[in-house]
Design goal:
It is built from 3 helices and 2 strands. With 65 residues, it is α+β, with helices and mostly antiparallel strands.
Length: 65
């Protein structure tokens, strides 16, 4: 998918990283998982969300699509 300059800026912005951190914290509060679980990340882009998932949930396996 080709992004225009506004979309590219937002995807790579510190603001988006801030939003992703909030979402990850909410997911963790809503659905606590034991370390060592298996997780799936769909649409990982540059992998920032996947890094947050690894840090917060500590899965044994993270499958990325």
């Amino acid at each position: 998918m080709k992004l225009n300059w506004v979309e590219r800026w937002f995807v790579n912005s510190p603001f988006r990283l801030f939003l992703q951190k909030i979402v990850i914290k909410r997911f963790k509060a809503m659905m606590p998982l034991a370390p060592g679980s298996t997780m799936l990340e769909v649409g990982c882009g540059r992998g920032v969300g996947a890094k947050l998932i690894l840090k917060e949930f500590q899965p044994s396996h993270l499958h990325i699509l």
